[in-house]
Task: structure prediction
Amino acid sequence: MTKKIIHAYDRLEDFVLVTMFGGMVAVIFYQVIMRYVFNNSSVWSEELGRFLFVWITWIGISIGARRLEHIKVMMLVDKMPFKVSRAVNIFAEFVVIAVCAITAYYSYSLMLSQNHVSFAAIKISMTWGYLAVFLGCVIMCLRCLLIAYDSLRELREGPKQIEEEGGEVQYREWGRGGNESLWKRSIGS
Result:
């Protein structure tokens, strides 16, 4: 049940980000055509493009966490035993959670204090801009909790078995730079 909810959220997140990205490209394309072809640039399109870029960036950090693509210094962790490396990964995830929680707290404060201020051209409250930061940090905290939970489970149960193929078992393993990779081990060894 939980996996279905997470998968549905992943699909929704992907759809929203692709839609926002398409909207941003369309708005910037419109701005370029208006400026260089018709020599008449619009005021709102540049600001809307920046607004969408901020939303894409802050919501996109969640996708980076889901795919384990955020930068990590793995020089020492790669050389550690499996259980120690998982413990270090759990600690690192909780550091990220702390940073995101602090950022979310201050972005919420900014949302409240900037409620009466509007963007100059698109005439919406600045709260909507700071909401991207708040929402992105909250979602990132949830993603980090899921990653820490997976690492804790692997710490207790060993590497997560992915698939069995003709006498080989694939395990999930952290690779360099925090990227998830698969490694194979013969069942007999």
About this structure: The mean pLDDT is 83.
